[in-house]
UniProtKB/TrEMBL annotation:
It holds the Pfam family 7tm_4. It comes from Equus asinus (Donkey). InterPro entries: GPCR_Rhodpsn, GPCR_Rhodpsn_7TM, Olfact_rcpt. The chain crosses the membrane at residues 20-50, 71-92, 98-120, 140-161, 193-215, 236-260, 272-291. Belongs to the G-protein coupled receptor 1 family. Its main location: membrane. Residues 41-289 form the G-protein coupled receptors family 1 profile domain. This is Olfactory receptor. Putative odorant or sperm cell receptor. GO terms for molecular function: G protein-coupled receptor activity; olfactory receptor activity. The keyword Zinc does not apply.
Amino acid sequence: MDSQNSTEEVYFLLLGFSQYPWAQTIFFCLLLMSYIITLFGNSLILLLIYCDTRLHTPMYFFLSNLSFLDMCYTTCSVPQMLINCLATIPVISLGHCWVQMATGLYLGGVECLLLAAMAYDRCVAIVDPLRYSVHMGPQLCGLLAGTSWTAAFLLTVVPVLTMPLEFCGHQVINHFSCELPALLKLACSDLRFYESLVVGTGALTLLAPFSFIVGSYGRILMAVMRVQSMQGHGKAFSTCGSHLIVVVLFYGTAISMYMMPQNKTIRDRDKIISISYGVLTPMMNPLIYSLRNKDMKEAFRRLLGKKIDL
């Protein structure tokens, strides 16, 4: 195929780690294990929050949104990656590639905004605890979550749908899946305006929420420092520690992939970075929130107790 305008269907070859045959099997096993952990762990979080009325609070409302989002985020790309590991010639059609890219960008954008909403929730809980239950009511929580899902669509999917891509020469994507940076490297059309648009939307979906989170945790740190008791310090840091770990894992890798100067070719380092925010972070979320969260552990014990009684 010479261009997108041809009447024939365009297919892309996804290289992944195909140049390292010895790594394909190892990568498949690790990827499958992480996907199973992601689905099981996030499903368990959703089940616990739904069944236990003690967890019907703003914090766990946002966590349930995050768990559902992570299940969708990994399902967007990981099944295709698993199939490609077993395929002799891993190919993907232009239509499927476009849908995968747009969906991945959208869900990644939702996660950026949702993590910022979660930071705001923790900031209000620690800085102004007496008014927390009044301020973070169901309407505001629903508005923050709904805004995250809606704004991400406008900031990611809409610009991608207006991007006129034409592909020249070999349709070979040196990646596991269809990500925007890898696909833009194959385009032969003039994309200077859209590259600027990508940087602008990246600033709104990555840098702006990250700056807000940093500011929120700055306020949290100052509020914690005013607390005299060590027990109060420990409780505050325990409450925010899980969320902060997720923020560092997700934003650190995503910003390095989308906001840093890019080479003309995709390197193996870029593939590993995409695995970090697209696969490892969704897998780590349930582990971090369940292992470090006393309420989740107690809810799990109560759920097991009910099952045993039955």
